[in-house]
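Entry 12.
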Amino acid sequence: GWGASIGENFPIEDWQIGLQLAVDARNDVKAKEQETTAQGEAVFDRENLIGHQQAWSLKADASRHWGSWEITGGARLEHMFQNGGTESSQSSEETNLSGYVSGTKRWSDYWTSRLYLSSGFRVPTLTERYFSGSTPRGTTQGDPALRTEKANNVQADLEYQGQHLSFNLSVFRQSIDSYIERVALSPTRQQYLNLGNAQIDGTSYRADWTISSSINLRVQGQWLWGEDDLGTPLNDVSPHQHDARLRWQSDSHALWLQATYRHEHRHPGSSELATDSVVHYQAGYKQQVTSNMTAKFLINNLTDKHYPVSSDDLAPNAQSRDFEFSLTYVF
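Predicted 3D structure (tokens):
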């Protein structure tokens, strides 16, 4: 593949304007499937995907300040062509437009809030449209007639920035039309389909507390929910997760302990499994050996917990307790 872009930023009176033109292409994208006998004889050799994709886009945005307010907005126009790779295969050519507007208000030296509204789109990938073949989940079939996902988004942020404590909180809702999902047609056959409408809601936060000149505590996490208009859970919407990291640092040494809590997952999607909640830990130490060399030592899965790395029904279990050591030299 290849791509190129050119852009320019310039002022017009009180506005700061940005323009960008971009082109990119992915030609001869291929996925091949082979099977041979123990003696090395070919059983089959076939291509599951041959695809081409070319696109150009034009993006424009503008921003300005009004007192304690900052207003930004923009739009992006994209034209994309996709082809399944053969003259007889179905092609897709479409033009999509997205846009956004946001307002940021500084209430004081410490508090800031922001409201963000946007519309977006996601063109089906070459795999979703043109792939046909075996996968670990069985036979998976693309659909050349898939429609582009369209979404409307709203997000609100609140931020506090103090001398020793900083905090931000975000809540959002994403409403998606023509949501694309991999659907099981039988125990051994799946196909990418447009499900209709879907909604994803979320809340995320992050807080940093400077306890002293050498000790810092960071806490962050998120809650996520996603389902289609029939109330069916969506795949790949991560379970709620929260992290806490306590870090001590001097001029040349750093030592930290991180704890991660992943919430139980009781409403899995069609290609997911229910999972229990889990808490796992990581410990680390870093030393600046010289001005050019850094040494780092990590202990992952400190308490040797046994758990799947995600709720995907083919997800492997997390690696047992392991140790990492690295030396980095910068010339």
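Annotation: Residues 136 and 314 are 8 Å apart (CA to CA). The two ends are 32 Å apart (CA to CA).
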